[in-house]
């Protein structure tokens, strides 16, 4: 599972490196996601006793999920259509480019985590309390 949306920071960094001014709310959102990321500290604390594994997505989904899979000696298939992409990234980039940002961009500081099926209801309660959106992509 993943918290928040993925790829926003990489999209914002791309805009910054290209010298693109923030001309609308989508540009502002993407650039701020790179310049001022919001780590999911409270979510991390809420996962301590139910998550089997967790990592922040600082190196990109493929790389960071790979760390969990390697350590767990597991594999995963990622459903690209299930990637949590923000409306801002989809307004500024085509779906393929947005997916590339999400898969390999990094610096989102969202959490990737695994939980046992028996903890699903408890997770939903905790997420509701924290008001943190999370998505399962496999």
TrEMBL record:
GO terms for molecular function: thiamine-phosphate kinase activity. CDD domains: ThiL (cd02194). Signal peptide: none annotated. Its EC number is 2.7.4.16. Pfam families: AIRS_C. Keywords: Kinase, Transferase. Residues 5-134 form the PurM-like C-terminal domain. The keyword Transferase applies. InterPro entries: PurM-like_C_dom (IPR010918), PurM-like_C_sf (IPR036676), ThiL-like (IPR006283). It comes from the Bacteria. It is an enzyme of class 2 (transferase). GO terms for biological process: thiamine biosynthetic process. The keyword Lipid metabolism does not apply. This is Thiamin-monophosphate kinase. It comes from Haemophilus influenzae. The gene is thiL_3.
């Amino acid at each position: 599972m993943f918290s928040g949306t993925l790829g926003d920071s990489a999209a914002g960094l791309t805009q910054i490196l290209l010298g693109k001014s923030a001309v609308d709310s989508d540009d502002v959102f993407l650039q701020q996601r790179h310049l001022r990321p919001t780590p999911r500290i409270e979510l991390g604390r809420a996962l301590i006793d139910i998550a089997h594994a967790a990592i922040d997505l600082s190196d990109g989904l493929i790389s960071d999920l790979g760390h969990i899979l390697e350590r767990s000696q597991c594999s995963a298939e990622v459903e690209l259509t299930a990637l949590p992409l923000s409306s801002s990234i989809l307004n500024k980039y085509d779906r393929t480019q947005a997916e590339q940002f999400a898969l390999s961009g990094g610096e989102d500081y969202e959490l990737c985590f695994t939980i046992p099926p028996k903890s699903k209801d408890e997770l939903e309660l905790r997420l509701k309390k924290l008001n943190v959106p999370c998505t399962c992509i496999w």
